[in-house]
Structures are given as structure tokens and as C-alpha cells.
């Protein structure tokens, strides 16, 4: 299930407004078959209460999404109220709530009625609330989140953690959470964090709708295949049709096919696509697949799906991207890095740019799923991603498995769900779902099961770097006898020579690299050995922009308050300045010494727009952007008008172009033409 983040934007206006005219705003929106409304904003919350009863008092206000709560909080009740106009009540229309990320357990309620619950922070999930929505009235969405404990670990079990030591009270629950190393005693608490840390979306779809669209591109065959899933009622005789858009232009038409048993497959040859990828593999070119369901000659649903035309495959001991040897070089973030959970496109975009500026072309999330905002930026900027979401992190933090089969079944199901949610991102060029497993589990038993679940979701598309399609290697920078002496790379060279599969160096570990005089020679030796000896690439645990601290003070494009206010180790987004560290020069800069590509010309391409000064009656507290003409294909995007009194709505749209901004000023419907452009280049 492709879930696009429609976060909010806060930069100065990039759109030119025309004079507002009187128009039936809500009616224009209500006639559309699809709409997505971001419920981000100020929510009410109550800490450490039972799930058995929704609190009736004691509520405070917080920003949702918020940063993970790592202070030992066990649970949080969240509540948002918004008005649903009567005009949204159409025959057969279905309504949904989507949570992009919550940890660890989360349950969704609509107007006090339990709808569904979910275990695990690693992928978004969606529930249908049709039949529970109140039209012409206020509605309340409640979300209950709980850490991994007791009945909140996996479905159908009770976990007794009474034997856990006092300094690590969640020793069993920790096995279901990725490690978040920090200094004792917070290390154990931080791992089992709790909170609603991703976007919350309210949406509608028609009675019969496209529930999944998966474009699969083949560079080897020069074909595009669209795998479709159809859900809902009133199937009858239905066909599916699709076209590929490049901006406003149609560049490919896929022959229509009948929908059979809720599925259809469309395919067409494509002789001249622009390949997606960083230099020299291509460019970060994104197309839009416009897919429609047709019943009785009438289009009943239309979905727009971004994709990149690229293919990754294994050839002997090499991995090919678009027919060229893949050579990824990069690093991964530290656990619970604030930059991941800020959910801010501008800051994340600058961080990815610094990776490219240093010579890196890849990043691995490793400790957690990176989130749709992050992956969308990687798609737009041509940055490669190793798809990962779990690492136990031993021995820095200990965990215990309550049941080998129970944990394995849960993890396998989680991996399949996660891959299904993220597979439409072209930036993910290989999967490595899990790294270190909890003690008592064997990777030779668990990894093949996880790989099978991921492969089923991805239909065999991308290779899996856990020993299935690609072997992996961990390289220490120093030798055990002397932490000041660098390794000579001989063991690595011998491993390369003996491999029959590609060998991916997932991690280079060791002390702060800049502190060792031998660091430069080590990197050159290892890099040369890997590149000439058939290695797949190098990923390290050190941060490219480590030890560069500043205090973030800008508006968050996810809305007000979702950012730390103390100094953080991040690039200086505000002034867009960054000085390469000695590490990034020694390590990532080696990439350019071999390939010499141009990596510094990419910036986010999605449009962003801030509408301010909006005032509304309670009945019209949502502002919408509707694509206006062919330059901005898509569907209506809505956000709650800011509840802080500023009357601001922040949007990020999938593509640039002309839109109509619809809202209500007091009792007057307003339609304004807006031109949404991409952010200024870095």
C-alpha cells in the first residue's frame, strides 16, 4: 500500500495568489472520488491511562506528529476533533484513517468506537471508518499507543516481565523494538519509546476503488507493468486503464485490461524512458502513473502513483543498476536520530544533500523504517537506500525472546507488511530488513523466512542483502591487539576472492576515524580492494556531519512544534551551510575519485505551499488544494487550518503546477488560484 505523506510547508510563499472569487468550495471537493486530509496539528493527550476507558478529563495539548517519548511513559491517549460537512456524505463513499508511524502498539477509535489495532512501529497502517463518521457534526479520532509490554507486544499473548531486572524492566518487550543505544540508564527506556510520531490522515475513496497500484519497470526488457488491486463494492464488469505522465504530458499508454477477482495487470513496451538513479546510472526522474477504473463506460476511480524507471539485478558477483555495476557508498543514522522524527522535508532534504556533497550516494535507515517523507526525498534527489527497519543492537542493550516461533512469526508478518508499504520507492535498491537478531534466534532459520515475505511483496524485484541474494560483511577499522592500529584489509580481500555472490560491506566500525593517523590509508586500501575485487560497496556507522551542532529555530513544514528546540547535531539548515568533516573527506570522497559523477545538482522537486491568514467557521476547518488542469496531476489534498489562531495551512504536493486553494472565510466559500513551485535549489 503506497502511502504518500502530505505534510505541511512553512517556507515563505512560493505561490502567486489571484483575487479570490466566490465559489462553492465544499461542493467542489465533495464531488471528487478521492481526497486525503492531514489531521496533523494540535491534539489532546493524556499519559499512562488504561485502554479500557477513553479519558473524559485531564487532557493537555501537544503537537502530532511529535518526537518519541523516551522518558519511561507507558501509554498515551491522543484525541483530535474535526468537523465533517454534510456535503461529504455521498452514496457508497468509504472513509479511512491512516497512521504513518506509532510505537509500539496503536489502536484507532472513531467517535469512541474501537476500529482496529496494530503491533509494531515499522510500517503505516490504514483502517476503514465508514459507518462511524458523523456528517454535519464534529467527529473525534482517538488513538491509544502503548509500549511493548504485557498484552501490547504481539497479538494474542500476555508477556510477564516480572523477572526482568529493575534497570531493564522491558527485557522481553525490547526484543520487538529496534535498539536505541544511549547512556545508562536511559538506554533501556529509550528503546521502548512510545508515541504518535508520524502523519495522521483522514481520506475517502469511492465505493469501488484502487486499493494498491504497483508499477514495475524493467530496464532489461524495456517494459512497464502495473499490478493493480481493486477493493470495494459494485465490481460488475470493470476494466482498468493507465497512462504515464511526465508533468502534464502523456508519454505512454498501457492497454486496458479487465479486473478479475479484484486484480488486473497492465503492461506496455517503453523504448525511451529516462532511467532513475544518481550519476552515472541515470537522473532522479520521477513519472506519474495515472490509473483509472472504468465501469459501464464511466470512470469511477483515479489514482496517481509516482515511480522511477529503473531495475536492479544480480549478475554473478556484481549487482547491476540500469545495466551498470552498482557501487553504493554511504552511512546510516544513529538510533532515534531527531532528524528522522522531525518529519521536516526542508531539513531532511538538506541532510541528504550533504551526503551527496560529500560523495555519498546511499543511506541505510538500519534502526527503523525511515518514513515516507524521507523516502520521497530520496526518490526526488536520486539517493540510493538500503531498505531496513530492525536491529536488536546487542550487546549494548540486552533483550530476551519469549518464544522463538512467536517472535519469528511476528517478525515475518511485519517484514511483509513493511515491504508492501515501501516497495513503490525507486530509491530502495536492495532490501536488508533485519540486522542483528535477539539472542536465541538463528539467522539461518529466520532470515530465509523474512526474505520470502519481502520477496512475495516485491514479486522478486530487488535483491536481498542478508545472505540470500547478496552476502554481507562487517569490517573493523582496527585490529584487536591494538585499537590504534588500522586493519590491513587482508581478511576482506580473502573473503572477496572466495565469494560466489556479491559481497556488501554493510558496516565499517571502529573509533572516531579522524583520531587515527592510519585512517586515510585504511580507507584507500579497503575501498580499492572492494572496488577492484568485486565488492558491492561500503556503508559505515559514522555520521557524515557528526559533531556539527546548531539550534533549529525555523517553522516546521509538518506544522507547529514538531521539532526539537535544543541544539542538535545536524546540518545548518537555516543558513544552508555545511563544512565537510575529515571523515566524510576520507571515506565518502573516495567515491568521486573513482566515478567522478556530478552529485551536487539535486534538490527536492515536490512543490510546497503555505497559505496563511485563513479564517474559518468550525464547519469549514479544512483547507484544500485541488489540481487545476493537467500541469499538476493528483487529487484534492486537505489540511486542518492551524488551531493556533494563525489561520495557516501547510501543504506539500507530489508535483509542481497550478492548483486551486479552497477554504471558507467565515461563512464565505473562497477559491484562489495558486501556482506551486519546487523549493529553491540548495
Average per-residue pLDDT, rounded, comes to 84
Number of strands: 40
Fraction of residues in helix:
10-25%
Q: What does the largest sheet look like?
A: 9 strands, mixed
User: How do the strands line up in the largest sheet?
Assistant: 1-40-39-36-37-2-13-6-10
Please compute the radius of gyration using only Cα atoms.
25 Å
Please name the CATH architecture of the domain at 35-147 and 193-204. Answer: Sandwich
Straight-line distance between termini: 32 Å
Q: Would you state the CATH class of the domain at 35-147 and 193-204?
A: Mainly Beta
Please characterize this protein's 3D structure.
There is one protein chain. By secondary structure, the protein is of the alpha+beta class. Among the domains are: 35-147 and 193-204, Sandwich (Jelly Rolls); 207-307, Immunoglobulin-like (Sandwich). 16% of the residues lie in helices and 34% in strands. The chain has a nine-stranded mixed beta sheet. A seven-stranded parallel beta sheet has the order 27-26-25-24-32-31-28, covered by helices on one side. A six-stranded antiparallel beta sheet has the order 4-3-5-11-8-9, with no helix packed on it. 50% of the residues are buried. Mean pLDDT is 84; it is low at 1-23.
